[in-house]
Amino acid sequence: MLIKSVNRLIANISGQATLRTFVVVPFVLQIVGTVGLVGYLSFQSGQQAVNDVASQLRQEISDRISDQIRTYLKTPHLINQTNADIIRLGQLDLTNPKRLERHFLKQIQVFDSLSRIYFSNPEGGLISIGNDERGLSVAFTEKFARGRLQVESVDTEGNAKKVLLNQSNYDAKERPFYQSAITAGQPSWSPIYVYIPSSRGLGIAASYPLYDEGKLEGILSSDLSLIAINRFLQSLKIGIRGEAFIIERSGLIVASSTTEQPFFSTTDQREQKRLKATEIREPLIQATAQHLRAKFGNFRNINRAEKLDFKREGKREFVQITPFKDEFGLDWLIVVVVPEADFMEQINGNTQVTILLCLTALVVATGMGIITAHWITKPLLYLNATAKEIAKGKWDKRVEIKRSDEVGQLAESFNQMVGQLQDYFAKLSSLNEALSKSDRKFRGIFNHTFQFTGMLNVDGILLEINQTALDFGGLQLNDVIGKPFWKCYWWTISAEAQTQLQEAIKRASQGEFIRYEVEVLGANKNVVTIDFSLQPIFDQNNNVEFLIPEGRDITESKQARKILADYNRILEQQVTERTAELERSKHFIERIAEASPNLLYIYDLIEQRNVYVNSAIVTLLGYTPKQIQDMGEALLPTLMHPDDFLQVPPRLQQLFTLSEGEILEFEYRLIDAEQKWRTFCVRETVFERSSDGRVKQLIGTAIDITDRKRVEEALHESLEGERAIARAIQRMRQTLDIETIFSATTSELRHVIHCDRVGIYRFNPDWSGEFVCESVGSEWISLVHEHKNHSTLKQKTLDNKNCVINSFDSEVKYDSIFGTSSFLVEDTYLQQTQGGAYSRGRSHVAVADIYQADFNSCYINLLEQFQARAYIIVPISCGNKLWGLLAAYQNSGSRSWKTTEINVVLQIANQLGVALQQAELLNQTQKQSEALRKSGTRFREKAQELERTLAELKRTQVQLIHAEKMSSLGQMIAGIAHEINNPVGFIYSNLGYARQYFQDLLSLLELYQQTYPNATPKIQALTSEIDLFFLLEDWQKLINSMQVGAERITEIVCSLRNFSRLDENELKSVDIHEGIDNTLLILQHRLKAEGSRPEIKVIKHYDQLPKVTCYASQLNQVFMNLLSNAIDALELQPPPRVITIRTCVGSADEQQTTNNKQPITNNQQPTTNSLIIQISDNGSGMNEEIIHKIFDPFFTTKPVGSGTGLGLSICYQIVVEKHQGQIRCTSTPGQGTEFIVQIPLVPIHCSESQ
After folding, report:
1. Each residue of 174-184: pLDDT tens digit?
2. For 301-328, what is the mean pLDDT?
3. Do the domains at 450-553 and 596-704 have one common CATH topology?
4. Which residues, including other chains, have CB under 8 Å from residue 549's CB and lie 6 or more apart?
5. CA gyration radius, the chain
6. Helices 899-935 and 706-733, axial angle in degrees (round to 10)
7. Is the dihedral of CA 127, 128, 129, 133 positive or negative?
8. Nearest-5° Cα angle at 1178, 1174 to 1184
9. What is the spatial distance between Cα 975 and Cα 711, in angstroms, rounded to a whole number?
10. How many other C-beta atoms are found inside a 10 Å radius of the C-beta of residue 380?
11. What is the CA 672 to chain-centroid distance, rounded?
12. 979 closest CA partner among 708, 705, 679
């Protein structure tokens, strides 16, 4: 009812309102509504823009602050970690405060953001280097322990300038940085403190506790000033009046964007206390902190980033809180606050302007609406008056409105309507004439159409026929009108055709459309094919009123259809032939794929299954292609290694975005049908894309590189073993104390082969024995300890044959490890057989599992008490005598020992034998020397002789160590050369076959192109995609480059094998130039340019030399040492970096006269017929003091761990003592160094000592 009432009200009002009112009022209402809506949306948009800009500003500033302080706080922990690594590597001695001071001094000059770097030990000692407003300073305690602390200012070289502070009773253990590190037990931060003097602001220390096997060695610390964070916050532009500050969870200020210090002095001025955010003088920060505390109750309740706003003095403030944490325990809050007024000043001004513009637009729009309404309604009123006049019969009235708009068009239409009414009756008279004209046109079209047509009644009587039909039959109109249609053309069609026509007329009379082809005779008596049809025409009652016959000559089109059918038949035959050709091509490609030894496949990324895989899968993995396809989506999870399967999702993302022509290469492991892992190198590219352009299918090839990986692993293991042996030899060389050697060797060997226990078993003179040293994990019992506490263990054997039990200990012992009682079994087999098989030359025993080795129960009982599950036992011989056994145990489970591990244990045992022999000789010599000294003056001469013998023994030790080292090096090089030579030989021998196979495939491809020159579009597309012509041109270059590379590797392997013949200890005639060139080839990787390292150029001036009779392998060692030292000297030199090698035949005197420098040489007299080799570099050179020491054993100028100091000493022995030659060195600092080697062309008999 309400709606009807409103409608009636509107109707009453609209009925009384004028047209002008309807035009003006809606127009004004629309303008008012639009202006009001625009103003409101403008205000809301401005408010939202303020919120967005404020949020973005707060977020950006918070992110910048977080990134800045995270970067700033990384430095001290990075320094601590670096120093800890250097200490663990043994390059920094914690007991040497001077060495620590120099190291810290260099670091603090590089990292100027740190205020102090220091180290404190468990004795309360401190060594510290600082860098503040006073410059560089060093602080240290006396004797590196608790006591007096002295602070001195120093220069950049560490030289003391003056004393800054003396403090007594200083104990580093009481300091916060020490205590916080001990409490945390890991790298951590100290509490924030105020520097003294306070003008340096706040500071914080990063501490790193340094442990060695659970024992505290000291605390590494680095101080960091927080003033830099203050400065950074002050540099930020946070709106106009915004602020940023950082607080701890306790509410204490860490830093802020104000100039106010984050601490204050107590009333007595004796103590500086840190300032809370709620106590700061800056009102905005103070109000923000108070609001946060009121909202969250406690700053520790803020666990995630928050965006808030609050009102202060009636104005809104925007706040963002961001928690900041790091892995070392830091937990701060970053707070950014921006006043809304910073953004609203311009917004409020714009709002006033918008309101003013809206009111102006409203006034203007209202005035324009009134004017427009008058302009529209005036001509309509005039038109209304004129229409009333015409309605009264005044046809001569016309509307005179001179306008071109819709109103003008309406007036013109009105005038036209009046004129049309006047012409209406005149037009009616002309309609009959028009109809007659239309009938004539129809007749013309009907008679002159190219089709035969007419009109029949339902009985088939011809009513109308066109001229085309009459001309075709040679008939006259009067001859056929009114006659049955099938009789009109009786002479042109057969009787059968006439019957067919009568039947067609009958069916068409019943309403059926009829169409068929019929052959008739034309006017010229030729046979014509007619396409004939009968179309029924219905009346209003849907009854057939008459029939329309139509016919057209289709003789030519029928012939064309026959030609088309023949063409289609020929085309079909060609398609069949081309399909067969494609099948042959497909068969050819499949034969190539099936003949390939590599795995070829097509993988559907969308369906996640293999679409195609060649038969190589059977050879490589043992699966049939059908088995692979049946796996479907389970293919990769089933066959791929779990670690490699984790990389599948990111690789699939990369494959989905793969571009055309791009090839991905990667490696993964698959398990074959025999449950063995095999490694494949895979190359994949796009094969098919979906309609939306995404990669759908990939085509790829996989090469089995399992054998190559095994070779690489074997080489790596061999290299690691040799390094372990070298480290063990290095430790043996540093001392002759046998206990120290045993301890270091067992520890090193256990860590190298990663076993649970390594022990040394010593035979006594009666062939009983005991464990004298071991390295064992903390979770296993100590056999050495058990030997000391249980005498029954002293007779236990380590062998596994003929376990002869002589007696039992009837006392039941309690096993503290397993919590069970067991009998301790004695075995005297080794004692009775005097070392068993080991004394008869057996090299080792390796057992993978004691329970699978067919041991008898007594021996298994013995090994169980040793907690052993698998072991390696190797004899230790001192000279020709069996001294003891070296044993490696795996206690946690069975273990299949590798050949490289066994070789490492064997070589370590050999080195222990050498060390024992040297220790025994040293012990005997020391005892004899002591006895001679006690005997008095009569034996002084004998004592001196023994002292010389002792020196000779030490020199012999160096030679033995070098011989063992070079023997190990030779074995390693020979092994590497052998391992590389086999696959390289395989590759090189197959290159010829590969070349021939490619040539055969090329010939076959050319034959296909000649036989079938018109390839299918798919073949053409693939040809273009793989750039076939480039492949045909490039494959020959590819094979050639592979052959050159294989020949190059063969040359390097040959040089390695020649160089590795270090055990050849006989004189032979050799070409010296060949030895130098082989050495340069081995060092080629250090000579060529790589990355930012420039090339070292080698200049050779070779003279015509005869063959020299010498120890060739040992001279190769001399060349290797001299050239390696020259490369080391040029390592840090700028270009040009040059090594010059000269050879000639002459004498030492002649050579010396050509050099202005005084050489350092030995006491041998120069020969007159000698070979001279000069090796010089343009490096930094050496001073006289160093030159006089370079041939001394163990003297080196290289950093710790980079050189042994034996290289030039060994060169001296080989050249002077072995070849009776000379070796000299001349050097000038800043210009370079030259070594001159001179050996006689005719060998001289070695001295008695040699």
Report:
1. 998 899 889 88
2. 88
3. yes
4. 452, 453, 454, 455, 456, 485, 532, 533, 534
5. 54
6. 10
7. negative
8. 80
9. 11
10. 13
11. 28
12. 708
Residue owning tokens 């960091």: 224
pLDDT for 49-101, tens place per residue?
A: 667 777 777 888 888 888 888 888 888 999 999 899 888 888 888 889 999 98
Which residues does residue 695 pair with via DSSP β-bridges, in sequence order?
689
> For residues 142 and 127, is the Cβ–Cβ distance under 8 A?
no
CA distance 66 to 337: 15
The CA distance from 823 to 968, in Å, is: 44
Backbone angles phi, psi at 533, to 5 degrees: -145, 155
Domain 713-935 has CATH 3.30.450.40: yes
DSSP 1088: S
**Choice between 921 and 1073, residue whose per-residue pLDDT is larger:** 1073
Residues 332 and 1184: their CA atoms lie apart, in Å, by 60
- Token pair of 1171 as six digits: 């070979």
Domain ranges of the chain: 228-342, 398-428, 450-553, 559-588, 596-704, 713-935, 1064-1240
Q: Are 1225 and 1160 in contact (CB under 8 A)?
A: yes
CA dist., res. 203 & res. 254, Å (int): 9
Question: What phi and psi, each to the nearest 5 degrees, are found at residue 997?
Answer: -65, -45
Q: Which residue has the higher pLDDT, 679 or 314?
A: 679
Residues near 873 by Cβ (< 8 Å), separated by ≥ 6?
798, 799, 838, 844, 845, 846, 885, 886, 887
Query: Alpha-carbon distance 837 to 799, whole Å?
Result: 9
- The domain made up of 450-553 has a fold known as Beta-Lactamase (3.30.450)
β-pair partners for 548: 535
Q: What is the Cα 760 distance to its own chain's centre?
A: 46
Strands (DSSP E) contained in 672-768 are 677-689, 695-704, 757-763
> How does pLDDT run across 451-490, given as a tens digit for each residue?
778 888 888 888 888 777 777 777 777 777 888 877 776 5
Beta partners for residue 574, in sequence order:
none
Residue whose C-alpha is closest to residue 873's, from 883, 857, 884, 858: 884
CB atoms within 10 A of CB 270: 7
Answer for the pair 65, 244: CB distance below 8 angstroms, yes or no: yes
Which residues are within 8 A (CB) of 538 and not within 5 positions of it... i.e. 6 or more apart?
511, 544, 545
Rounded Cα distance between 821 and 819, Å, is 7
Instruction: Give, for 147, the enclosing helix (H) or strand (E).
Output: strand 147-154
The yes or no reply on domain 1064-1240 and CATH 3.30.565.10 is: yes
Weakest mean pLDDT among 291-295, 300-304, 733-737, 833-837:
833-837
**Residues, the chain:** 1250
Other CB atoms within 10 Å distance of the CB of residue 696 = 18
Task: Give the pair of three-digit tokens for residue 472.
Answer: 């075709």
Report the phi/psi class of residue 802: left, alpha or beta, with left for phi > 0 and alpha for psi in -120 to 50: left
Q: What amino acid is encoded at 675 in this protein?
A: Q
pTM of the model: 0.35
The answer to whether 1125 and 1214 have CB atoms below 8 angstroms apart is no
Phi-psi region of 660 (alpha: psi -120 to 50; beta: other; left: phi over 0): beta
Tell me which of 3.40.50.10810, 3.40.50.1970, 3.90.110.10, 3.30.450.20 is the CATH number of domain 596-704: 3.30.450.20
In a 13 Å sphere around the CA of 1220, the CA atoms on its Cβ side amount to 18
- Rounded Cα distance, 956 and 741, in Å: 18
Distance CA(836)–CA(229), nearest Å, equals: 75
Please report, as a single letter, which amino acid is at residue 461: I
**CATH level 2 (architecture), domain 228-342:** 2-Layer Sandwich (3.30)
In angstroms, how far is the first alpha carbon of the chain from the final one? 134
Q: Which amino acid is at 352?
A: Q
What angle separates helix 738-753 from helix 706-733, to the nearest 10 degrees? 160
Buried b (16+ CB within 10 A) or exposed e, 192-211: bbbbeeeeebbbbbbbbbbe
Contacts of 512 (CB under 8 A, 6+ apart): 536
